[in-house]
Design goal:
CATH topology of the largest domain: Rossmann fold
Largest sheet: 4 strands, parallel
Radius of gyration: 29 Å
Distance between the termini: 68 Å
Shape: elongated
Number of strands: 8
Number of helices: 9
Strand order of the largest sheet: 2-1-3-4
CATH superfamily of the largest domain: Resolvase, N-terminal catalytic domain
Number of domains: 2
Strand content: 5-15%
CATH architecture of the largest domain: 3-Layer(aba) Sandwich
Order of helices and strands: EHEHEHHEHEEHHHEEH
Structural class: alpha/beta
Length: 307
Amino acid sequence: MAIYLRISTDELHQPFSLGAQELKLTAYVTSQDNWELACPAFVDQASGATTDRPALQRALNAARAGRFDVLLVYRVDRLSRSIRGLSDILASLDDIGVAFRSATEPFDTATPAGRMMVQMLAVFAEFERATIIDRVINGMERKAARGQWCGGYRPHGYDLDRATGFLVPLPDEAAVVQRIFRLYTRDRVGTRAVANTLTADGHRTKSGKPWSGAAVLTVLRNRVYLGEVFYRDQWHKSDPHHPPLISTELFDEAEQVLIARGDDHAHRTGARSHFPLAGLIFCTRCGKRYQGSTARGNRALPETECR
């Protein structure tokens, strides 16, 4: 026989869960007559909402290869937290003649009553998971409405005050953010040129990498610098909120420049553009936006060549 263990987060957040499951399941196997472990435990650290888990798939493949005849779990919800997922797993085990057992929920899947009990447990597991998700979402929405950071990668220019849950400015990084907006709006420097300037001056992103045009665009589009917090497709701004790094007027100006230059690298005009129609008219042949430039001479372009 074989045992399957699962937790939804990493071992750092649940330091005893996997070990406790394995200890109790090993003791359970020892207490049964003629039971012995045929292979090491199959261990997953993944959500039970899906059956696409590496160790679970290895366990099913081992069962198909005839390496064991019983799959043991601590509880049914360790195997799956969805009715459909559990049904698919049990059907797969049944097709290859492998029995399923739960150490804490005694039932016999060989009988109609036992199969009904397993399905009822799956119903409760799925309901519990949906309830937890709903509570987490509601809690995070309230947190965002209060102006507190909802987790994830912190934007350049800020750190998290864990005591209050609010973002706090980092002076050195905040100065870089303000410089990006100034270069892009007042000096009309393109995103790649801004990135090259920052990198040449020794500045790095929060991950320690050189600045890129995409990283500069991320800063220019991020309303967090206005004191707002994003969660589930909505920007929230409460009172109090974290200190903004730029003014609303400067952010709006940057947005207008972004619109004029287009949304991607291929459509944006060159740096320091003084051409009012740049980015507004298109080439009928290749679909790209026209860019303004100055030059001397009268070299004619071939008909097939597009700028």
